[in-house]
Specification:
single chain; seven-stranded mixed sheet; alpha/beta; FAD/NAD(P)-binding domain; 398 residues
Amino acid sequence: MTHQHRTSHAVVVGGGIGGLTAAVALHRAGRRVTVLERARSLEPVGAAISLAPNSLRALDVIGLGDEIRGLAAWQGDGGLRTPGGRWLARTSADAVAERFGGPLVMVHRSTLIDRLAARLPEDAVRVSAPATLVDHGGPDRPARVSTPDGELEADLVVGADGIHSAVRRALFPGHPGTAYSGFTTWRVVIPVPGLGRFASHETWGRGRIWGTHPLRDGRVYAYAAARTPAGQHAPDDEKAELMRRFGTWHEPIPRIIEAARPEDVLRHDVHHIADPLPAFHRGRVALLGDAAHAMPPTLGQGGNQAIEDAIVLAAHTGDLAAYTVARRPRTTAIARKAVSVARLNMMSSRVGMAVRNATIAALSQAGPALFERGFDGIADWHPPRPPYASDEASVGSR
């Protein structure tokens, strides 16, 4: 068994968006970084990701914000609709940018993964590399991680291994872990011939929602969610399931479903951490992203908070307790808000829905900032040190 140890070595378990952002930030800080990814490639299982001004400012810190802004589609012109097509509330991209100091954008996850990986040394990322935390380390000893190729020692291990994090279970074996959020989701990223320009929208029905957003490359990102018992699947295929649940809703929803192939549709039950962890660190190990604070996707902040975590962690590697202090209260509050929003937009009571829709419509008429106000305290976050614009005009391939 081989052993490696340098005082500047950081091991990141998980090659998703949060793990790669942490790896890039630590690499820029002068650390030798090893990223261990269980899957056979970094190609994400997922679709698009919405990046708010808070995470874009975090990406500015590692010189990537401007590049992503240039590759992404700006969001904001659109709003909230009923299944029949009536607009309950309108949103404005310009208003979002003015209120929070930057745009809300949509980009494919693989684009962000590729740009992050390109900023790491070629030998930094190991795929097909499942990792097990052997020792979380302490003041007088490094942390240790076992891999199929041997054991690694590091003065910092980052647990970025997602919602079913093995690193989290190793650090806090008594924690109950995740809970089912009560609904499942479907996602597609596809071209839709003849669709043309359309406004982004989220549509709230009875225990169901649908969202549609254009991407910069001309494809459409759409997602849906519905209350359903955990572990269910369509009796035929998930495209047919979407047509059954959403096929009578307003355009362009039926057209998007029709354009999808069954294999284009991803379905995942949603889980979240209902009981916050006691800390986001132990010994020389820190958790970030879903491993630390998995939340429902109803605010679109899961990936954004992972990016924030990564930048803050890189600024507190000498004091992981300070990282917990900086991140735990914020992410706990945002996760709780995401759960509350899920209760609101997945409401199944007809009376409750009528009251909800009337309230939203009235508030929207009183002022156009209803959507924007919902992101106060979230999208206006700034990183621990001032960001700067991207310092690289282009990025070469790895």
